[in-house]
Amino acid sequence: QVQLVESGGGLVQAGDSLRLSCAASGRTFSFAMGWFRQAPGKEREFVSAITWRDGITYYGDSVKGRFTISKDNVKNTVFLQMKSLKPEDTAVYYCAARRNGLGLTRAETYDYWGQGTQVTVSL
Predict the structure, then answer these.
(1) Which of 1, 29, 41, 74 is the most buried (most CB within 10 A)?
(2) Neighbours of 6 (CB within 10 A)
(3) CA-based angle 59:24:16, to the nearest 5?
(4) pLDDT of residue 28
């Protein structure tokens, strides 16, 4: 069993930066960790993912070059550093976990989810 707790959301202005954290409990070494977001009235969107063992990273097209995913193996925590935030980045951001394999950008392949943290970017 894996439990995930996100933190770090908030209200910022366009152009600002924000860092989200996802603390994981349980055995995650063979897992991949993902960040997804969901804005009101929209489908859940893939943001980024990283594999615990190899640190291989993946990014959605809308965040490439602005967001960076990283991990701290000692603290069992995954981070999402967000820069140059835009109003369209406003959403609830969810951390998720699943075993390594294909389809890391697809939300339906993830087994464990955090409660979500709100990120609001104003003009």
Answers:
(1) 29
(2) 23
(3) 45
(4) 76
